[in-house]
Amino acid sequence: MTCKTYKSLILCFVYIVSCLLFRVESFTPVGRYAHSAVLVGNKIYFFGGFNGKTCTNEVFYLDISQKFNAELPPWTDLTLNSGIGFESCWAAAAVINNDNNPNIFLIGGLTSLQDENELGSQQVYVFNPKSDQWAMPIIKGEEPAVRRRNFKAIVVDNENILAFGGLTTGDAATLIKDMMVLNARELTWSYGNVVNAPTTRDTYTATLLLDGKLELVRELL
């Protein structure tokens, strides 16, 4: 065996070992619904969702800053090190940007399909996209009496997170009629005026109009 052939075999062996040890496999999330999604800069972050069998604790994002093949989107999975601390479905997500340091508030939702009466000790969790870390903020004021799902959260003035209605998470789910307000800077709860408010609803879209009004549109099933 010549020296040249021997070196080629060594290089081939090193290449194969490197592929086995350090290969990077692409991540493709399974289909789901009841997940939470929010845009932060050029990335769409996804949280939890029902995958056909159970709720998940997955966290991943899609970078839309550059063109990509729609059949092979460049997903990035954060679940291994930054997954939600519980399985999450039908929660609401909202972004507050403090001095270019965004925080994603994940509010309410089901934490388990096996026990829908499970309220948990925390109704709000905060994810920081820069550190990929979760926090459990201490929020002052009167906490919502019930945990809710199937609702939307809207941010006003990059400070207040508003959420109307939704469903309770118990076995006998009922519609809620209140306007929950979370001040994300001062971390306080309050409640808006529901005089002349729309009928109770869940599974709707929520849009903040240019005149400052909140438009709620019920989804037709």
TrEMBL record:
Keyword Repeat: yes
Every Attractin/MKLN-like beta-propeller domain range: 27-207
Transmembrane domains' residue ranges: none
Protein name, as recorded: 339_t:CDS:1
InterPro entries, alphabetized: Beta-prop_ATRN-MKLN-like, Kelch-typ_b-propeller
One Pfam family linked to the record: Beta-prop_ATRN-LZTR1
Keywords: Kelch repeat, Repeat
